[in-house]
Amino acid sequence: PQRSPSPQTTIMAVEFDGGVVIGADSRTTTGSYVANRVTDKLTPVHDRIFCCRSGSAADTQAVADAVAYQLAFHSVELEEPPRVRTAARLFQQTCYRYREELSAGVIVAGWDPRRGGQVYVVPMGGLLLRQPFAVGGSGSSYVYGFLDAAFRPGMSRPQCQEFVARGEA
Fold first, then answer.
1. What digits encode the pLDDT tens for the residues 61-71?
2. What are phi and psi of 33, to 5 degrees?
3. Which one of 58, 79, 95, 126 is most buried, counting C-beta atoms within 10 A?
4. Do residues 27 and 34 lie in contact, with contact meaning Cβ atoms separated by under 8 Å?
5. Does residue 6 carry a pLDDT above 60?
6. Residue 43 known to be catalytic
7. Ranges of H-type helices in the chain
8. Sign of torsion, CA 133 1 35 30?
9. Beta-bridge mates of residue 42
10. How far is CA 81 from CA 10, 46, 74, 87, in A?
11. pTM exceeds 0.85, yes or no
């Protein structure tokens, strides 16, 4: 894939039979200045559900914390782990409700017994869309062409790991 001219966020997730593979760069930038080289943009919100965060680090972390809190209660009430779609809907509702105040783009990825591995994208503004793979962040436009050409339905876990590693390279 073509390299971006300046450091930019790229988050990714892809489904495979049995789970998901997620990835992200590790830089936090302020314009073209790299403020932190070791940021973790992959945040667990429940045992088998993660979010990949892009946008304002403070906004996305606050939303992820709120969703994790809601999912914990949901899990206790139902006496079973939450579904990935439930987590994605909670992100979507929060991002939509506060779309004027937040700078948050999120990919929600995980596994549940009902639907297996799932990837949902919640871009800024609060749309919700399930996709076999998703890419987001300010650097995503540089890798879309590569990912569209390289993606193959039914990839194995190692193939998905290679796909994400090449997309993040």
1. 999 999 999 99
2. -90, 125
3. 95
4. yes
5. no
6. no
7. 57-78, 84-97, 144-150, 157-168
8. negative
9. 52
10. 29, 8, 8, 11
11. yes
Contact 129, 115 (CB under 8 A): no
Chain centroid to CA 119: how far?
Answer: 8
CB 6 within 8 A of CB 138: no
Report which of 133, 78, 124, 127 is spatially closest to residue 103, judged by C-alpha positions: 124
Token pair listed for 98? 């506060």
**Rg from Cα positions in the chain:** 15
User: What is 17-65 written as a DSSP string?
Assistant: TTEEEEEE---EEETTEEEES----EEEEETTEEEEEEE-HHHHHHHHH
Six token digits for residue 126? 């609060």
Cα(first)–Cα(last) distance of the chain, in Å? 8
Tally of CA atoms within 13 A in the half-sphere of 97 that contains its CB:
7
83 pLDDT above the threshold of 80: yes
pLDDT range class, residue 28, cuts 50, 70, 90? low
Distance between CA atoms of residues 117 and 84, nearest Å:
8
Using alpha carbons only, give the angle 134, 140, 142 rounded to the nearest 5 degrees: 130
Q: Which of 22, 2, 20 is nearest to 12 (CA)?
A: 22
Return the pLDDT at 29.
Answer: 62
Sign, Cα dihedral of 102, 69, 82, 42: positive
